[in-house]
Design a protein that fits this description.
257 residues; alpha/beta; three-stranded antiparallel β-sheet; 10 helices; 9 strands; binds adenosine monophosphate
Length: 257
């Protein structure tokens, strides 16, 4: 079994005792086989693996999305120990934001497109917490999923722009056999929502359709489309299913043939 570390002081102390290469996998918990792939890659490539579990409030643009974000800590820890993770870092919001979020990372190009158009402030919150975590953990390599492709692009850009001494490793999206990309938010889908989510995944990967046609087909089937766009050699999309506090936003992307 690994070690649970909550305070920043304890993390610094523990980190200073670790030698060799350190892999880091930042997560918001509610872990699934997608997170597990990142963890497995890290434990294979690095001497020690640190996983953080932190539902970062500054990257949520909706209070109900933050409140309803699934939390399954006991099960998460079991998954970490099963995979030989050395440290589970589970910080408090106040510890991670001693400045109450007056200092933040802002990026002025990629942040404003795709998810940035409908989620103001999301990428600043994400970049800020990733920078803080990278500074604290000081890993050799940090692992991120291609599922959140725009996020991966922004993190790679930040590491390059700020000369951060870490290698960023992008990992392929893990899907259910039927094609649905695994996501912690899938747990919030109703049976009908799951059908729609699956329909979204399949339609996005249908290369006989243009982006305009995909939008049309999805909207006809009562999915609300934030965007369908092609860029970086990929086709990316975001949709919303359900309504009110039960609304679930889903993103996905596939490599263009
Ligand atoms: P999250 O807990 O949603 O913040 O995700 C933590 C990390 O896991 C991020 O780097 C995500 O891109 C990655 N991730 C989430 N879902 C998947 C998936 N289905 N396949 C691969 N990586 C994923």
């Amino acid at each position: 079994m690994g070690m649970i570390v909550k305070s920043i002081t304890d993390l610094r102390t523990t980190r200073s005792t670790l030698t060799g290469s350190i892999g880091f996998v930042p997560t918001m918990g509610a872990l699934h086989a997608g997170h597990e792939e990142l963890i497995k890659r890290s434990t294979k490539e690095c001497n020690r693996t640190i996983v953080s579990i932190f539902v970062n409030p500054t990257q949520f643009d909706s209070t109900s999305d933050l409140e309803k974000y699934p939390r399954t800590l006991e099960r998460d820890l079991e998954l970490l120990w099963k995979n030989n993770v050395t440290v589970a870092f589970i910080p408090d919001v106040t510890d991670l934001y001693p400045d109450s979020y007056t200092y933040r990372v802002s990026e002025e190009k990629i942040s404003d497109i795709l998810c940035g158009t409908t989620r103001p402030g999301h990428f600043s919150g994400m970049l800020t917490v990733v920078l803080k975590l990278l500074m604290l953990v000081n890993p050799t390599r940090a692992y991120f999923g291609e599922k959140d492709y725009q996020q991966l692009k922004l993190i790679e850009g930040m590491v390059e722009a700020l000369f951060l001494p870490v290698h960023i490793i992008g990992c392929p999206t893990v899907r259910e056999e039927n094609g649905l990309a695994l996501s912690s938010r899938n747990a919030r889908l109703s049976p009908q929502g799951r059908e729609l989510a699956l329909f979204f995944a399949r339609t996005l990967a249908n290369f006989t359709l243009s982006v305009e046609e995909i939008r049309e087909v999805l909207e006809k089937n009562s999915l609300r489309v934030d965007y369908i766009e092609e860029r970086w050699g990929r086709r990316l999309g975001a949709v919303r299913v359900g309504s009110g506090v039960d609304e679930v936003r889903l993103i996905d992307n596939v490599k263009l043939p």
